[in-house]
Amino acid sequence: MMHVKPIGALEDNYMYLVTDKKTGKAAVVDPVDVDKALEAAKSECVDLVAALITHHHWDHAGGTKKLAEVMGANFPIYGFDDGRIEALNNPSTDQLNFKVGGLDVTSLHTPCHTTGHICYYVRDENQKAVFTGDTLFIAGCGRFFEGSADDMNHALNVVLSALPDETKVYCGHEYTVSNLLFAKSVESGNQDIDAKLKWAKERSAEKKPTVPSTIGEEKRFNPFMRVSKPSVLEPLKVDDPVKAMKKLREMKNSFKASI
User: Fold this and answer.
1) N or C: at which end does the chain have fewer Cβ atoms within 10 angstroms?
2) Residue 56 annotated among the catalytic residues of the structure
3) Catalytic residue among 57, 117, 151, 154, which?
4) What broad class of enzyme is this (predicted)?
């Protein structure tokens, strides 16, 4: 049985402790705050056996060198090998399959936010989860720092949208309320956005995480995963999903959320 523990880090980042409860083996996703990650593993009484790094940005990969020093040079650190993640020793290529205890893990190469971005699809016999770093957020997506609208459209609407709808989405940042406010500005008549926004505001007021969502939910309220829908294309005055993706990202870059 898979158990996922979100661990807040820095200002609005998420690390995750992903545990196979049958074996007690666990992996940590994006351990920027190594002390906090190890403390979580200790409190959960699990055996930390790997680190999964989504991309090289400091707020996700900044703890890898310290983690290797604490855990030993042979401790498995997975991620894209382009020389930008310190202490990396298990290069993650697209569709690489490996195990964390009894959990099956597949790395999905989703370049755009960075050229080496990896999402990790994890499952057991009953549950499915994907750790999306800064590619897919709840109701949003990452900036196109090293890629194009076509790249992000492929990442979201070919690679990630092909996962089962029940797959839980664990993203790298707590941006949900502002993302939903932007989504509402695009699709004002979408009731799924309204319902999720009301819920997310309540969660935020209680200082509780809004993760996870699911792939199925994202298809209903995330404008970046709805770029082929007339309700998104028409207000943007474009007729092509990639053009819609480009325009949405440009709009989001300058959007000021009034929370």
Assistant:
1) C
2) no
3) 57
4) hydrolase
Which of 20, 56, 113, 151 is an active site residue? 113
Cβ-based burial of 206 (10 A; exposed 0-12, middle 13-18, buried ≥19): exposed
User: Which residue in the list 55, 56, 117, 154 is annotated as catalytic?
Assistant: 55
Active-site annotation holds for 151:
no
- Spot the catalytic one: 30, 33, 59, 151: 59
Cis peptide bond N-terminal to 212, omega within 30: yes
d(CA 64, CA 77): 8
Q: Which stretches of the chain are DSSP H helices?
A: 34-43, 58-61, 64-71, 149-154, 176-186, 191-205, 215-221, 230-236, 241-253
- pTM metric for this prediction: 0.97
**pLDDT tens digit at each of 259 positions of the chain:** 999 999 999 999 999 999 999 999 999 999 999 999 999 999 999 999 999 999 999 999 999 999 999 999 999 999 999 999 999 999 999 999 999 999 999 999 999 999 999 999 999 999 999 999 999 999 999 999 999 999 999 999 999 999 999 999 999 999 999 999 999 999 999 999 999 999 999 999 999 999 999 999 999 999 999 999 999 999 999 999 999 999 999 999 999 876 5
Catalytic residue, from 20, 33, 134, 151: name it. Answer: 134
The CA distance from 115 to 54, in Å, is 11
User: Is 109 marked active-site?
Assistant: no
φ/ψ of 194, rounded to 5, equals -60, -45
Per the annotation, the verdict on 55 as an active-site residue is: yes
